[in-house]
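Entry 14. Ran structure prediction on the chain below.
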Amino acid sequence: QKTETIVVNVIRDKLPIGFNEAMIVVRSFSGDGNAEIKVTAVNGNSTAVVNTLETSEITANSARLNGKILNTGVPEYTERGFVYSLNPLPTVKDNIQKLSVAVNDNVDFSCRIENLATMKVYYVRAYIVQDGNIIYGNVLSFTTSSRPAKVTTSGATDVTAKTATINGAVTDAGVPAYTERGFCYSNRNTVPDISDSKTVVAGNGTGDFSLQLTSLDYPSTYYARAYVIQGGGVIYGNVVSFRTEKRAPSVRTSAVTDVTTTTATFNGIVTDLGMPRITRRGFCYSTVSTNPTINDDHWDDYSVNTSAYYRKMSRLTKGATYSVRAYAYQEGEYYYGDTVSFSTIAEPEVVTGNPENLTKEEGFLTVSWSVTLHGTVLSEGSTPYSERGFVYDTTSYATPNGSNSVVVAGHVTGSFSATVTGLQDFKYYYIRAYVKVGNKYYYGDAKRLSTFRL
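Output, structure tokens:
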């Protein structure tokens, strides 16, 4: 029996990392059997390696942490993530927070962190866990940023006695971005702040914004400032001031139109509604006062604007002279336009007297009658009449047509008479005295006359 030495050379670098095993079979030339030799070799454990990369997307209160796996190690790592702290060498024990990132085939990994303090230096390290051990990457630092917001206040617009619009603009939203914007204002504090009257205006980012104020005192000087709240602090714009003033309305009385004996149309216009806006307008009128007021006869209109308005008045006195003024009402005070005068039309007055001297006139075959008619013009009216006379007919409502009327000369007040002939026998006649003004006739009461034979 002979012994031989068998040498097996293993090049470990060629082996997979970790424990390796192989069997060597030795056969006998004599056929007495085989011998098996187990060869084992270990390519020792490989430590995982992680690298911390530069932090990105840095804001005032957030950032993105980045890392990269350089070697997965043997055995492979089972956890990865970041630790960060205000201390220069953060660990899983003293970090502000440990952030784990899912393990996958991508060697690059990252995580966004929020709620950081502004203007602070943070230190960060990537880490991995391999076989229960924590392996850290290199330490890097980053600083959170901060930039104050900028807000300005513009002059007030649309100022009235009780309202105004205040205006502002955010020219820089800041870092971190502001969380509230609005205006503060006061008529006591010349440098108002949010402890005075404050109104929030919805919106964010840069740009103009405004607020309409109502129910203001007047006359009064107000001070206003735009503001924003950033990171819990208040940033103010410049102070602007404005003054609320009462402005009297302006109303004008126009000429009266469509005048009749008992009616007329009053006309007016409010050219300025005033500040505060008027709540009523109308007309006042009188036959006694030359400057009528609301204490005289009046008509109220609660529909107020700057357009012309009018009112047809009725039940006026015939032949009377009226004074009229348009008015506007503003918070307990009346404002009047100029006085306009007019007179209602006075109709002429005429009465019919009793007929006299009824005489029968007999011809050879016919019978007719004659009579003397009487009338009186009591007043001429607003316009002198152009004609007077009588109308006589068998109806009580007949009008003059030449064949049934007689014109009597004269154009003054007082009595007038006329004799008519040719009245028919066996008739009832109705007689009316009249005067004519323009194309219109005015009559006295009708008197009945009988030509039945006695």
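The mean pLDDT is 90. Will compare against last week's run tomorrow.
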